[in-house]
Amino acid sequence: MQRRRVLSILLVVMLIVTIIYPMNKNVQIRANDNGAKTHILSNPTKDTTGNTIWDCVYFGNYYQNDVEGKYKEPIKWRVLKVDGNDAFLLADKGLDVKPWHESGDGVDWETCTLRSWLNGYKSSMNKNGIDYSNDNFMDTAFTAEEQQAINTTLVSNAQDPFLDSPKVNDTYDQVYCLAYKEALNTEYGFSGEYNADPTRALVVTPYANAKLDWETYPWLMPGWWLRTMGDDTYRDVNTYKGKYAAYVFQSGFVYPNGSSVNDTFMTVRPVLHLNTQNTDFYSYAGKVSSDGTESDVPTTQEVTTPNETTTQEGIETSPEATTTPNIETTKESTTPENLPLTPGQADADRWFEIGGYTYYCGPWNGSTVQLGADPEDPDHVQMQQLTSNWGNAWGLQLKKTVTGLVPGKIYTISIDMYSPSEDGSYKITNDLNESEPRKLVIGTTTLSTELMADGDGTIEFMVGAGLVGTSVVLDFSNVVVKDEDGNIVYPKAEEQTTKMEENTTAAPTTVAPTTEAPTEAPTQAPTEEPTTADPKTITISDDVNIEGYQVSTTLGGSRVVGSVEPTIDGKNVTKWGFVYAVDTIDGNSLGVTDADMYVGSTNKYVVSLDSTPAGTSNTVLGNSTTATYFVRTTLFSTNTTREFTTEYKVRAYAVLSDGSYVYSKAHTYSVYKICDQLYQSKKMNSSAAHDYLYNNILKVVDPLYKEVDYNWSIIVVK
Fold first, then answer.
1. Based on the domain organization, do 592 and 534 belong to the same domain?
2. Residue among 65, 517, 552 nearest 321 (CA)
3. Global pTM?
4. Are 423 and 542 in a shared domain?
5. Domain hosting residue 34, numbered range
6. Nearest in space to 95 (alpha carbons), one of 15, 189, 188, 204
7. Taking Cα atoms as reference points, which of 404, 370, 406, 375 lies closest to residue 387?
């Protein structure tokens, strides 16, 4: 094991789903099935730049974003090969952390504990005599019906001449791991060479990441197991001991010599053969590319009704979890525009300028970097490390220096960092000895810390990105420095106004809630221009309302609930929906007024969205028994303080039979305030959902937020 850890330092080249709270480990929710029956799964292909593209499916559920292992989410699988009705699947991410064999004894695939755990075999099937029939991956991830859709496969464990491994018995398994040669199979979309390659690069789920011993091994990057025995003949030329198993580095480097079978810093990416005739058990999940990009068909497309969601998804926020309007939320993470990247300088112990920053690229192993600076915003830069010594998170450093401060005073400095991939880790602040790198997340993360200005009134904020994958372009922007009283001292007031305008000119659809499922055609007539009235004329009616808000723990998003009566002022209602606006970001108002909140508004921060049958509720969510209730869900993207505290405006609207528009009053809301109300009022309909608000939102915004016990009395049934 020690040998692998040394080699990992030398060789490793780095690198909104539906959440359910099951009542037991087999409670299952269907991912969005709109494409399952119609999409034809394909074998891996290559794009024009040589990247591998895989079709993906959702099948089964496992612990992923919940590090405590309380709730599960649909598992995403890459399609390695399609043969008739058989699809060979590889888990898209490392799902769990398990040794190949619980003890360090010599063992092969047939008798190792990993095989038994994956399939739920009894004690007689592994050399350690451990019974996995009640604690295993198979039963945790799949219902009994889903298990019937997994083909039993003859798994070849033939001798590998390259590894000089012994011949061991073939096995019959439903779930297993790839072999060494399979990890090099170009037919599956992999590189045919064993060297580091993004086609095999590992992304670890938060659940699995939490089980890795980062405290003991802060320098180490995890890998993922293969089922092939490692080549350990050099340890004893007279015998093959079987105490090592082959694996793949996080970078995609295939290491045949392997690691100790009892290594606990290794993840599991299972494979299985799915019978695609069972379309009720899987759904299409879009495509992934070896360059880290995804073309997702998420499990979180526009929701049907809250009542239906409760029934189908097991646990969901109920109408009782709806707050009254009074509230406020956040900006969806947008993909920054690409800046022209040019090769940067790299030299030992030298700093170079890029925009309003300086950078340092370590000279180790011929490290190289390319960078781009926004000519209109010195705080906006992008950088990409092309080659590196991946053992040091400080191999590439980006530093922001702010001057003109009061010496000896404490300041809070924050920088937005956008990553298109989870492929990597980073560090922040000037503490080069910081022990644990932080894992990248897809989207915008606000990096923040408190620093004391030195004797010259200067602070320096630094990001170390030496462990980031070579295909990842990191985007940095929106530097803000605040004094101890919360006053913004950088940028200056005049600069701040200008930058806010520049940073928020994106079309409102980039921050608007998710659109409703496009596969469900609306029953209403297409949008028509009003015939007798201008939507700019804002007529308020008590017959169209914002009823309140919900937080969806199954979807990971916030929901606005609206209502409309069938007739208003003696005219039939023909169409309805919401008008949204981004109101306040980081405490800075964008100046959107209620008068800007109308269908077809010219304000760049306002967007209107028609409701469709997918967002129509069959449940009464307010006081009226005659109204139609409709919902729209905004999915969480970055899960940051900024996202949860950004404020939105919203109002409902209705179109009448004469073409005129009527509106509800406008309200503001934020995810944080919604969650605070629901949490303090104990309105979530399960303890798990109650805890979700605290762990995933409230504590993120306020680390000192006081935990409140759940009120079980509200869900007693007879």
1. yes
2. 552
3. 0.44
4. no
5. 2-294
6. 204
7. 370
